[in-house]
Write a structure and sequence with these properties.
This protein has two helices and eight strands, in the order E-H-E-E-E-E-H-E-E-E. By secondary structure, the protein is mostly beta strands. This is Glyoxalase-like protein.
């Protein structure tokens, strides 16, 4: 389990976040290319509750080529025994009010997606 946080400068972001996986590597798939933080041993910080960091190149975001189906993120909650440490490590880097951190004994995620048919919770 993990989640991804976008940045416009992955080098700077990784330098500011000691807990982030390193190094950033270049990845391609078809005509897409991006930089993403990848731990050398494959382990994810905080059991995957800490985000993988991604940087897309300048220009239109790949999501702009997808059909708009009327869905949008309302909230994304990261539940983890060390939620306070994760929140503190990302302070000033990830300031999206939709992202929330809560303490829980078992790491997990909870998202609320607004759809044309009402809000839906994913766990």
């Amino acid at each position: 389990m993990t989640w991804v946080a976008n940045t416009s400068d992955i080098t700077s972001a990784l330098a500011k976040i000691p807990q982030a996986a390193r190094p950033a590597i270049a990845v391609t798939r078809g005509h897409l290319e991006w930089l993403i933080s990848v731990p050398p041993d494959g382990s994810m910080p905080f059991d995957g509750a800490f985000p993988t960091v991604i940087e897309w190149p300048q220009g239109p975001h790949p999501a702009s080529r997808m059909a708009d189906l009327g869905c949008s993120l309302v909230t994304f909650e990261i539940l983890h025994p060390e939620a306070d440490a994760i929140r503190a490590a990302l302070a000033g880097i990830l300031d999206d009010p939709r992202i929330r951190f809560s303490r829980a004994s078992v790491p997990s995620f909870r998202a609320v997606i607004r759809t044309p048919n009402g809000d839906r919770q994913l766990t």
